[in-house]
Amino acid sequence: MNRQALYAAACASLLAMLCASAHAARQPTADVGWPYYGGDAQGTRYTALTQITPANVSQLQRAWTFHTGDLATGTAGPLKSGFETMPLVLAGRLFPTTPFNRIIALYPGTGRPLWSYDPHINRHQPYGDGLTNRGLAAWQDPRAPAHCALRLFEATLDARLVAVDAKTGRPCADFGTHGEVDLTGIAAYRPGWYHMTSPPIVVDGVVTASGLIFVAGTMDRRFHALSSATGEELWHADLPASAHATPITYEYQGTQCVVIAAGAAAHIDEERRGDALIAFALPKSVD
Known about the structure:
By secondary structure, the protein is mainly beta. It has one domain (46-281): Neuraminidase (6 Propeller). Helix content is 8%, strand content 32%. It is built from one helix and 19 strands. It has one helix spanning 3-26, and strands at 46-47, 61-67, 81-83, 88-90, 93-95, 103-106, 113-117, 131-133, 137-140, 150-155, 160-165, 180-182, 206-208, 212-217, 220-227, 233-238, 248-252, 255-262, 276-281. A five-stranded mixed β-sheet has the order 1-13-14-15-16, with no helix packed on it. It has a four-stranded antiparallel β-sheet with strand order 2-19-18-17, with no helix packed on it. It has a four-stranded antiparallel β-sheet with strand order 9-10-11-12, with no helix packed on it. A hairpin with a 3-residue loop joins strand 13 (206-208) and strand 14 (212-217). The longest helix is centred in the first third of the chain and has 24 residues, at 3-26.
């Protein structure tokens, strides 16, 4: 091959690489969700997201707030509600649960509701933990058709296991009886005494790869970001009620959000009740 041909081939190769690079730069970043109660299958509550760092965490702003409307203050009955959900984020949806066991699908970018499922629990049984629920489990069924291919499972306060379609919120009819399994058939079952609120791993705090720890809890109505290296508080935000739930973080359409449920604990009388699911993110101009 002569010199002119080699030069032409080199130019063509360089042009192809530049075009490929430009095309890759235009591609949106892949969303990073929170598909398990503990973040991953090991329950580590660790994320590799690095958009929010110790250098910019002080610039976090409230991105959106969603109110579930499921709130019990004790005025209409003996039980009070506690909002302690740890939402799942997968399949382009954010899935919190409410103290009344409702499952809700939200658009992760804005908190806009897409659907909700209500198992209509009995709210008048003597639940020792009050009215509360801490989250869901998700399972992808490779054998299922489009309906209920991705299933959300919830254990209810009145001792049922329900399965709904993550896409539509409709019960998975092939699971148990009309999408639920009765769990009351145990020896010495007593209504209200035998109840379920959450998956079995309960740890406060989310650790990020950028060197931050987000934490909330007890009767403190503040959401904190600490340096994982020093423990120094780098940022905090006031909440409408204390956050007994564990925060999560995810990235959607290039924006990392940190989400916390602020609604107090059902069994602490001195606390202010709430039903707010709050997301924090950096301003659009901050890298």
